[in-house]
Amino acid sequence: MTYSCFDVQIDNNIAHIILNRPEKRNSMIRSFWDELPEIVKDIDDNAKARVIVISSTGPHFTSGLDVSSFVKAESDDPEEQRAARIRAGSDFYATVKNMQDSFTSLEACRVPVIAAIQGGCIGGGVDLITACDMRYATEDAFITIFETNIGMTADVGTFPRITKLIADGVARELAYTGRRMLAVEAKDVGLINNVYADQEEMMKNVMAVASEIASKAPLAITGCKRMMNYSRDHTVADSLDYIAIWNASMLQREEIFEAMKANAEKRPGDFVDLPAVKKSIG
Q1: Which CATH number is 167's domain given?
Q2: What is the C-alpha separation between 45 and 108, in angstroms, rounded?
Q3: 142 and 43, same structural domain?
Q4: Of 155, 187, 214, which residue sits at a domain end?
Q5: CA 6 → CA 9, 35, 36, 125, 199, distances in Å?
Q6: Are 100 and 108 in contact (CB under 8 A)?
Q7: Alpha carbon 211 to chain centroid distance?
Q8: Are strands 14-19 and 6-11 parallel, antiparallel or unpaired?
Q9: CB-side exposure of 121: number of CA atoms within 13 Å?
Q10: C-alpha dihedral over 211, 101, 66, 137, to 10 degrees?
Q11: What span, in angstroms and rounded, lies between the C-alpha atoms of 219 and 236?
Q12: How many CB atoms lie within 10 A of CB 167?
């Protein structure tokens, strides 16, 4: 399938989603918000890959939301203007919820999602990468919660997630000042896993990490993701109970034995892929 904002490549159990509008700094236009969750859902629901990598093209990972693509032409009709003012709050809420759901799809899918960041990761880009499982960057990369600089409060996912990834005070500084945080500093505070000299080196290493993940038992990996997401949002007691219930219902001896045998024989494991998600009836 062809998309206006992305290229999608799937090979060796790795799905590579590439932002493909470098001439527009990979800004997030209307179609972006529909295409991303559609791509992720297709990969996840149909078990097309065991890990997802999101990278970009051009000098910047993304310049964030393209506000101009959401501006509607004003009508000269007073009644239409009045109706638009009344609907404004509801329309804005629905739009933001749709955007939030787009990035939540990365967090909710069963497989790990890795972000590979070069250049600027601005505004909505921070919302995107904080919804991913892991983040890698080039030396020239930077992040900025840019919404503050244009009189807005970031609303698509940065704040619920970034404060779970880095110290609260650091997150607040970034939010209140809108300043750029360079990749090396982002690594120091734990937001970035590793920093590389350039995009070629970054992608080589990111794909190596993705390959390592893809070589593991898919059920074990999705269990890890689910447990860590759950534990982030619940008490230790609740999380311990949940992992016990998860393993009691999902643990597969055959996969454990195969993993142990493959390790002993120093060969790739022959694991069963996750099942496709069953479609609801009705």
Answers
A1: 3.90.226.10
A2: 11
A3: yes
A4: 214
A5: 10, 8, 8, 15, 18
A6: no
A7: 18
A8: antiparallel
A9: 29
A10: -30
A11: 23
A12: 11
Residues with Cβ within 8 Å of 82's Cβ and at least 6 positions away in sequence, in order, are: none
Task: Outline where DSSP puts E strands in the chain.
Answer: 6-11, 14-19, 51-55, 113-117, 120-122, 134-138, 142-144, 181-182, 194-196
Strand duo 142-144 + 181-182: pairing = antiparallel
Do both 92 and 113 map to the same domain? yes
Indicate whether 119 and 239 sit together in one domain: no
The structure tokens listed for 142 are 């930077």
Number of domains composing the chain: 2
Average pLDDT over residues 146-155: 93
pLDDT tens per residue, range 182-234: 999 999 999 999 999 999 999 999 999 999 999 999 999 999 999 999 999 99
| One domain, residues 138 and 223 | no
236-249 mean pLDDT: 96
Q: CB-based burial of residue 205 (10 Å sphere; 0-12 exposed, 13-18 middle, 19+ buried)?
A: middle
Residues 16 and 143 in one domain: yes
In this structure, are 61 and 147 located in the same domain? yes
Residues 41 and 141 in one domain: yes
Domain containing 49: what range? 6-214
